[in-house]
Amino acid sequence: MANHKSALKRIRNSETKRLRNRYQHKTTRNAVKKLKEMKKKDAEKFLPEVVSMIDKLAKRNIIHDNKAANIKSKLTKHVASL
Question: 10-residue block means of pLDDT along the chain (82 residues)?
Fold first, then answer.
């Protein structure tokens, strides 16, 4: 167990951030799955929202920038092919 006050605070902060990151990542993954199951018209409307969610994850370093780019590219191609 940590001996310093600052270390204890760091543990609390880290856990809070971990849970928030996990929630945001899971929500985005669910949105991506939902987008893949949609019809073309609905998917085209929903795509900007999902892209925005992915960009936010990348900006906050929850996922890597290149992974975000790959996901966005695949989703855009998928929607275009519907």
Answer: 88 96 97 95 95 96 96 96 90
pLDDT at residue 70 in the model? 97
Alpha helices in the chain, H assignment, sequence order: 5-36, 40-59, 65-81
How is residue 60 annotated by DSSP?
Answer: T
Which tokens belong to 60?
A: 């906050």
Q: How many CB atoms lie within 10 A of CB 66?
A: 9
The DSSP letter of residue 4 is: S
Q: Which residues, including other chains, have CB under 8 Å from residue 72's CB and lie 6 or more apart?
A: 51, 54, 55
Instruction: Give the model's pLDDT for residue 50.
Output: 97
* Residue 37 DSSP label: T
